[in-house]
Design goal:
This protein is an all-alpha fold and 297 residues long. 79% of the residues lie in helices and 0% in strands. Helix 2 packs across helix 12, helix 4 packs across helix 8 and helix 8 packs across helix 11.
């Protein structure tokens, strides 16, 4: 499980790294991996998953020389490809279970509710990514909120009143990336690889508990868990919420609650508690250390 989790880190970083190349910039792969790990640490220690992406936007800009808008476009497109990937796999798994009669129509409605909300959010994200000027008023407020963070890392950067330039940079970077089909496909496949590692970890845990379960069920369970995990709720790492979601979905497929809860907790030992030291070191080096350097003595 530890090996799979480390492999998942590699896939996740590679997907973003490929998009940075597609945008026309260069970053050492180990630097990309370090920045990614630092941003993951943020989601476990701060009360919102939004910090995960905000940290990558700022640190990605710092390490590559990208404009903040361009860096943001790489992070947003990475997230879009990741969501599209596991939604497609979820649809495939649901179809496979229905065709085998392994789930009822009532269970299907319950399972499809969260993916439906996620699809709606994805459509909204795609719309505003294609029409960035629509969010200018909201962006002005967001940039004012991010000003203290950005200026501590890049002291020369002033974001106040720069919404138009930011949106132009975002639009330019987004169009460059989507125009490269080869890079898009490679990044998409890397995102699928990362998601597949998460599926494999839970499957191994269930097998170790002597629970025979379809891989399709595990795929759906992880997908629901990931969707819940992306909800911007003020709970660091969605601790407790994620485990409840995993246990509930497994229970729908006749897995005893005690087994489902044990599987959720055991998988989190690898996906959270063993991650913290690794991501914490990266966060110090690429985050707090850079902030310290950027602060006047």
């Amino acid at each position: 499980m530890v090996a799979l989790q480390l492999l998942g880190f590699g896939f996740y970083s590679t997907a973003w790294y490929i998009l940075i190349l597609a945008a026309g910039y260069r970053m050492r792969y180990l630097t990309c991996l370090g920045v990614t790990l630092a941003s993951i640490f943020a989601v476990y220690t701060m009360p919102s998953g939004v910090f995960l992406e905000a940290a990558r936007c700022v640190l990605g800009s710092k390490e590559t020389g990208m404009k903040l808008g361009e860096s943001t476009s790489t992070v947003i497109l990475h997230r879009i490809l990741y969501i599209v990937g596991f939604l497609a796999c979820t649809a495939l798994a649901l179809f496979a279970l229905l065709s085998r009669g392994s789930t009822s129509s009532i269970d299907l409605v319950e399972l499809a509710s969260i993916p439906t909300v996620t699809i709606f959010g994805l459509v909204v994200l795609l719309y505003f990514s294609s029409n960035p000027q629509k969010i200018r008023p909201v962006l002005n407020r967001l940039l004012r909120f991010l000003q203290p963070i950005v200026t501590r890392i890049q002291r020369e950067t002033v974001v106040e009143g720069k919404a138009d330039r930011f949106l132009d940079e975002y639009n330019s970077g987004f169009k460059r990336m989507v125009s490269s089909r080869r890079h898009m496909v490679m990044s998409f496949l890397s995102s699928i690889g990362d998601w597949g590692c998460s599926v494999a970890i839970l499957w191994i845990v269930l097998l170790s508990l002597d629970t025979s379960i379809s891989l399709w069920v595990v795929m759906i369970t992880i997908s629901i868990g990931k969707m819940i995990q992306m909800t911007p709720i003020a709970i660091p790492g969605m601790l407790g919420v994620y485990e409840t979601a995993i246990t509930t979905v497994l229970a729908l497929f006749a897995v005893p609650v005690s087994i489902g809860a044990a599987a959720a907790l055991l998988s989190r030992i690898v996906t959270v508690w063993l991650e913290l030291p690794v991501t914490g070191v990266a966060a110090y080096h690429y985050g707090y250390k850079l902030v310290t350097k950027g602060t006047p003595g």
